[in-house]
Structure formats: structure tokens, C-alpha cells
Amino acid sequence: MVRATEDKGCFDDIDRLNREAFPDNERVPTDKLLRFTKSGGELVAFYDKNEFIGFSYFRAEMGLTYICFFAIQKEKRSMGYGRAVLEFLEKVFPNNQLVLEIEPLDKDADNYSQRLRREAFYLGCGFVASGYTSAYLGLVFDVYYKGDGFEIKRFSELLDSMRGGKFQPVVKKKE
Known about the structure:
This protein has 175 residues and is α+β, with helices and mostly antiparallel strands. It is built from five helices and eight strands; from the N terminus they run βααβββαβαββαβ. 31% of the residues lie in helices and 33% in strands.
């Protein structure tokens, strides 16, 4: 794991993958993610020896590791790297519950098959659907977690601590 704040050399790798992996309406510019590290987030690149594998932006506080962005290079997917990164984060933050959001399984979505694969990946890594959604910036996501009993209050408090500008998240029970 290489922190982008400590090694600016990984920034180009992260930026390239960020532009490739996330649709325009879901992507936060990489330089903005880097600025978010000043308020408690972590922007990190993952390498296997010297080969760039992927990146993540996350917040680890309040007993949670909230994985806001996570992407593995397309040609490195299905090789165990994604699972290895998640296991690594569990080891780095052993007392934290992992929490993340994924696009809901909408059969009418253009990327429905991708959404199915993504959910299957996270379920295979031990994540569980929380029964809650989060909505912000005109987007809605399903919230998943790994660990004992999801505490919606803690997750809501973490999101509240991140509020600012256009980011005004709303968490509610899934309908």
C-alpha cells in the first residue's frame, strides 16, 4: 500500500484507473480525492512488486473503514487482488467493520451484468447487504458491510462528518 500523500509517483496510476473504472456521474476527480486526505481520508495505491494493481479511497474512523472508492486494473481482475486488498484493509484496521456501497441491482441498468458480478464478488468476500441505501449527488447505492451486526447509527454519523458542499448524504432503510 502506497499513500498518494507520501508518494506522488502513484498519482498518475490512480488517476488513470479512476477515469477508466468509474462513470462520469460517480467519479470524484483524483486531485479532489487527494485533497480529501487532509480531512481524514486515505488515498492509496496497491502494487504487486512494482506493478500497479489498483487503488482505494477510504475513511477509517468511528470503528468503521468506509471504502468510498475501490478499483482494480481491468486486466488484474479475477486474479485474487481485490480479495487480497480487502483482507489487507481488515488486517490494517482489525477493530473496524468494513462498509461500502454498490450500485443497486437494477435490471434496466445498462451495466446490469457488471452490477451482478460486483455484488457476487463482495458477497464472496463475506460482505452482507445491510438493508439500507445511501443517496447523494443524485445517486442511490446499496450499503454492504463485513463484520458483526451493522450499526446504521455509526455509519450515518460517519457520513455526517463528511458532509460538505454538494455532498449531503441521506441513509434510509431499503424499500
